[in-house]
Design a protein that fits this description.
The chain is of the alpha/beta class and about 400 residues long. It has 14 helices and eleven strands. It has a domain of about 280 residues: Vaccinia Virus protein VP39 (Rossmann fold), CATH 3.40.50. Bound molecules: S-adenosylmethionine. S-adenosylmethionine binds next to α5 and β2. Belongs to the carnosine N-methyltransferase family.
């Protein structure tokens, strides 16, 4: 039986993601290790004697890459069947450089979300969020519906579910979904697995030990913490696509126009008490689509709580996409337009201004310049990090939006 086009492309994306995990070791040896061993070999005998330990150090780098690769092989062993992939990696679609880059960088994301090493950076937001939730929702938390879009590896969603709220994590990237699912559903004990997330980066190290440092994950026993309470669910797909209104947003790569999806969007209207965005809103090509979506999915009186920087992901992206209007009832398409992915990078103040004057939001709290790392090696000696904004907006009952 032929699969519909959408299903085929999802299948290809899954295969490319799985294949990028499969080829992690070859890629790193080729791109990271080999140039350095060649550099070492190119040194004069005299210079080699100045840093005689260097070759051992490179061997240690290779061992760390090997260990990370074992993590990915274990993941594949567990996930290939679950995701309905064929068992022969040679038959999977070929990953591109972006896929491979994600497979390397997601090791930092694992440390950010699931290691004690990064608990301090996670707490920057978690402490603020917890204060608000404790004051507003002291009881009956199971009845409070929370949505976490751009959930990454789902740590924040797990933390909110641990506080007793019914939590839905939404994520679009198969890299994130596969790794997150592996970490959460494999019955891992606290600190059971070691990874080497900092091994791929050769700058900003105080010493070599810090680059080669093992980070243990997960920092909690996840299944014990969630304890079969049924408080956490994961939804795969683009946030505006699944939770946005059927009007006011143009059809695009991240917002489709099938009758099936239009029906899901209509059903999701006014269903959530809280939308919690963490390092997410700057992932938008059109941040107004995110505002429309948050406004659509929140119940009247519901809250949007946001934390993160304004490092717009598409700011430097030269690519375009086709956007178009469509009839929300028939799906008929008009006004197709070649649209740059970059070009709508609204600031903190712009967003709060439009949210509170053109959308039905009231500003409850607003803060800026909260410094935070992001998957940062705590021994890093650079000044890297972000100045984050934090706000709480409430969807106001007297400014109700009638989108379908
Ligand atoms: C910078 S990461 C933040 C992850 C997590 N919230 C955290 O704080 O660690 C942004 C996440 O948003 C996801 N994302 C980007 N666009 C999305 C969309 N349209 N719908 C859902 N998720 C999206 C990315 O795949 C990525 O996992």
């Amino acid at each position: 039986m032929d699969l519909p086009e959408e299903a085929i492309s999802d299948q290809v994306l899954l295969e490319r993601t799985a294949n990028s995990f499969y080829h992690y070791k070859d890629f790193c040896l080729q791109e990271i290790w080999k140039p350095r061993i060649l550099k070492w070999k190119s040194l004069s005998t005299y210079q080699k004697q100045l840093i005689p330990w260097y070759e051992d150090y490179l061997n240690n780098i290779r061992d760390c890459i090997e260990s990370n690769s074992i993590f990915y092989m274990n993941l594949l062993e567990k996930c290939v069947g679950i995701w309905g992939l064929g068992s022969d990696p040679n038959k999977w679609a070929t990953p591109n450089n972006v896929d491979m880059g994600k497979t390397v960088s997601i090791l930092n994301q694992i440390a950010r979300e699931w290691s004690a090493d990064c608990s301090e950076e996670r707490d920057r937001f978690l402490a603020l969020l917890k204060d608000f939730l404790d004051s507003k929702f002291p009881h009956d938390r199971r009845d409070v519906k929370v949505l976490v879009p751009g959930a990454g590896l789902a740590r924040l969603a797990v933390d909110i579910a641990r506080m007793g709220f019914s939590t839905e994590a939404n994520e679009v990237s198969y890299h994130m979904i596969m790794v997150g699912q592996f970490i959460m559903d494999s019955g891992l004990q606290k600190d059971q697995v070691g990874i080497y997330p900092f091994v791929h980066s050769f700058s900003h190290h105080l010493n070599r030990r810090e680059q080669l440092r093992r980070v243990n994950i997960p920092d909690i026993n996840i299944s014990e913490e969630l304890g079969g309470k049924g408080l956490l669910s994961m939804v795969t797909g683009s946030f505006p696509d699944l939770y946005g209104p059927n009007t006011n947003i143009k059809q695009s790569d991240s917002y489709s126009n099938s009758a099936y999806i239009r029906e899901i969007r209509a059903r999701n209207r006014s269903t959530k008490d809280l939308v919690v965005t963490n390092f997410f809103i700057d992932t938008a090509s059109n941040v107004l689509d995110y505002l429309e979506t948050i406004s659509h999915v929140l119940k009247d009186g519901g809250y949007w709580i946001n934390f993160g920087p304004f490092m717009y992901h598409f700011e430097q992206d030269p690519q375009t996409e086709i956007t178009a209007d469509f009839n929300p009832y028939t799906g008929e398409v008009s006004n197709m337009f070649v649209t740059p992915l970059k070009g709508l990078e609204l600031s903190h103040e712009d967003i709060l201004s439009v949210a509170s004057t053109k959308f039905p939001f009231k500003i409850i709290h607003e803060q800026s310049h909260i410094s935070s790392g992001y998957g940062t090696n705590k021994m890093d000696i650079s000044m890297q990090g972000y100045q984050c904004s934090f706000w709480i907006l409430q969807k106001s009952c007297d400014k109700v939006n009638n989108n379908i």
